[in-house]
Amino acid sequence: MKYHFIGLLLVLSACGQPPAVAIDNPKIEQVSTFDVALNKSTQHDLESRFDSVLNPQNLNDWMKHMSSKPHHVGSPWSKQNAEFAAKLFESWGFESEIETFEVLVPFPKIRKLELVAPEKVSLQLQEPALKEDATSGITKDVLPGYNAFSADGNVTAELVFVNYGIPADYEELARMGIDVKGKIILAKYGGSWRGIKPKVAYEHGAIGCIMYSDPKDDGYVRGDVYPKGPFRMEHGVQRGSVLDMPMYPGDPLTPGYGAKGDVERLAIEDAPTIMKIPVMPISYADALPLLKALEGPVAPNSWKGGLPITYHVGPGPAKVNLHLEFDWKLRTAYNPVARMKGSVFPDEWIMRGNHHDGWAQGAADPISGMVSLMEEARAIGELAKTGWRPKRTLIYVGWDAEEPALLGSTEWVEYHRDDIRDKMVAYINTDGTGVGFLGVGGSHALEKFVNEVASEVQDPVQDVSLQDRNRARLRVNGNKDAEREDLRIYPLGAGSDYTAFIHHAGVPSLNLGFGGESSGGSYHSIYDSYDHYTRFSDGDFKYGITLSKVNGRLVLRLSESDILPFRFTNMAENIGTFIESNKKLAEEVKKETEQRNRLLNQNAYTIAGNPKKTYLPPKRLDNVPVFDFSPLDGAQKRLEASAWTYEKSLAGLKKGSLSAEQKSQVNRLLKDVEQAMSHPDGLPRRPWFQSMIYAPGFYTGYGVKTLPGIREGLEERNWDEVHKYIEEVAKALDRASAKINAAARILEGD
User: Fold this and answer.
1) Cα–Cα dist 76/82, whole Å
2) Most CB atoms within 10 A, among 95, 476, 688, 737?
């Protein structure tokens, strides 16, 4: 029987379009996870016992210890924290090991920036110790403010202020007749992921990039600054990676395979993701004299920040010298990995991950999430001591080297890719967490499952469920999705360790954390400390414990369900919104093209308020063709029909009617739906990203692009790609429908 169903799947997958199931009114009543896959009273008892042993004092103690010293990858305390976690996992009943990878991470050797004209000004370029912050005075093993994977360079040039340094800002500069070729650009943090700014600057001919946090976005305009308040103080610097991760994350020298031992590595100069110009972050105190020295046009109103100056664009007369050199060495990344073998389905894996490395003390980012994961693992260990064993294998891991470029997780996924694709049911990620509202992103086949859990866990401060609190927030903001039966989860772009799982290996993934009421400017500075976190965020660790409750339930229900809780009606509906969004974008591109060409015909591009002076005219754009979205619409309708057929089959399933072999067959089909929506050739210019449904944007970094082959084809005006990926996404949806239909047939006894 097993081989029969595998053969049937291959036939269905090979066909262009599986037949749609005719459902005149598919809105049958859906059943919950409990109704078909779990013993309700037994599961609630298990979860109550899990909750009863959770202790917020553990989170406090572990954070104080783990954030007491700098713990970036390659530091002694990063290794210590990995060993600390591994020993605790083992004491809680897990099989524990530390798996290592040798990854390229540059550390700064020379880091100089000074204003050399119209007068010479040396900048501070350091964060002072504060008496109110016990760890801010540590000097040993501290990395200064720098951007990992900047190029080496010693350049001197005029300065140009480019707002956030995203592509739209360069269009504005062009309209003002300002060219950054041969210049050094100064950009505000924000507007996109930091690595986009030097990437776009280099594409426009700039020879250096400086970034700073403007107080309007991240400082005293927002509120009182540290140590009086939580916001970024004037000398605070945001460290961070500028590796071109939208091309591929992970070790830049081993693209697509694990960085183990003596594997073949690219030469540094041949690695395409390393930035080609020197890049440096500074504080807004150090940015002030640079901005003061700029002249030229006054910046547009939307560009102006919160410093007490008139913002000018330049170029010059401000001229700066930027000198950076790095120690380009391999560093050892330490991933503590803990396993508890499943008693029924040992070859079905559920994985929980959070990184343990930080740029400095890293209390909020990432230790707040790591200690919540550790307490969750400890509570599961307590359950195991009573004789309970998970049905599926549980894996808990603390990733190293996340901050430089998702190195620890990406290399692990690339090294174990075949086993992961074969065995991993789901990956659940956390990162830094705070207080307020539960945020969830991930695979939309898990949307209903997450909603069920969020409706059962209480907010630790407000006397409502996490679900009801989120729904109330949406209503206050006038969001129509507040009345949706299930609240939407957001699609995943990049920015944390789920990236390799969902985008490369095709593993159904989730990313969770609390926020919205824990604003602050300690991010990636030395002030991301235990003192800052306990004063201005989750000081009593109530939300950290609540995060353990949420993720504990997700893990336990995934473990104990006879039929995995993947549901596809929500997925089909969300994909329908992605399709409509791309159709709307196509119409917008067409209208913008027609308007631009019409203005060119009229010679109507002028500077506002000065009709005698014209902008540099933009180029005439080629006409937008008509795109046929009907293959995609048809595939989405077939997916929707398949999803409702599965719901009908699930609702009619009688407990005990399936054999263990049949359950395994169904579960394999369900978890493989995500992989079915991938393509081995990946996306244009970045084959590492293989999902046809989600990807980080090539020019947004962390920000997600849905149906990225289509959307970025429209944005980049590559019409051949748009036509191609309409077809490819349609085929991906049909592959998913084939998996779902096959699962439904097994449930029906066919």
Assistant:
1) 10
2) 737
Sorted by sequence, the CB contacts under 8 Å of residue 553 that are 6+ apart come out as: 47, 50, 453, 456, 457
Whole-angstrom distance, CA of residue 226 vs CA of residue 237: 13
DSSP symbols for 387-439: T---SEEEEEEEESSHHHHSHHHHHHHHHTHHHHHHHEEEEEEE----SEEEE
What pLDDT band is residue 37 in, cutting at 50, 70 and 90? low
Residues 73, 404 contacting (CB under 8 angstroms): yes
Where along the chain do the CATH 3.40.630.10 domains lie?
Answer: 58-100+333-453+493-560
DSSP states of 471-523 as a string? HHHHHHTT-GGGGSSSPPPBPP-SSSTTHIIIIIS---EEEEEEEES---S-T
Whether the predicted model's global pTM rises above the 0.90 cut: yes
Residue with tokens 């900048």: 123
66, 358 contact by CB (below 8 A): no
List the structure tokens of 328.
């380009």
Indicate where the chain has its CATH 1.20.930.40 domain(s).
2-30+568-582+631-747
What's the pLDDT band for 604 if we cut at 50, 70, 90? low
Residue 382 scores a pLDDT above 50:
yes
450 by DSSP, 3-state: which? Answer: helix
Reported confidence tier of residue 11, pLDDT bands at 50, 70, 90: very low
Q: 503-518 burial, b for 16+ CB within 10 Å, e for fewer?
A: bbbbbbbbbbbbbeeb
Residues 6+ apart with CB under 8 A from 296: 178, 312, 313, 314, 315, 316
Closest CA to 297 of 617, 615, 619: 615
How far is residue 282's CA from residue 324's CA, in Å, rounded to a whole number? 13
Question: Does residue 12 surpass a pLDDT of 50?
Answer: no
Residue 247 CA to residue 686 CA, distance in Å, equals: 5
Residue 282 · residue 211 · CB < 8 Å: yes
- CATH for the stretch 2-30+568-582+631-747: 1.20.930.40
H/E run at residue 106: strand 95-117
- Tokens describing residue 462: 């407000």
Mean pLDDT confidence for 601-625: 65
Confidence of residue 8 (pLDDT cuts 50, 70, 90): very low
**CA–CA dist 588, 584 (Å, integer):** 6
Give the residue from 379, 423, 429 showing the smallest Cα distance to 556: 379
Strand partners, 353: 397, 429
- Identify the pLDDT of residue 40: 80
Res. 10 pLDDT band, cuts 50 70 90: very low
The CATH architecture that domain 58-100+333-453+493-560 belongs to is 3-Layer(aba) Sandwich (3.40)
CA 260 from centre of chain:
25
Contacts of 532 (CB under 8 A, 6+ apart): 133, 226, 230, 363, 364, 520, 522
Structure tokens that stand for 326 in this block: 């790095």
Q: What CATH number was assigned to the domain covering residues 104-329?
A: 3.50.30.30
Query: Could you tell me whether strands 279-282 and 208-212 are parallel, antiparallel, or unpaired per DSSP bridges?
Result: parallel
Write out the residue limits of the CATH 3.50.30.30 domain(s) in the chain. 104-329
Contact assessment for residue 123 and residue 107, using Cβ atoms and an 8 Å cutoff: no
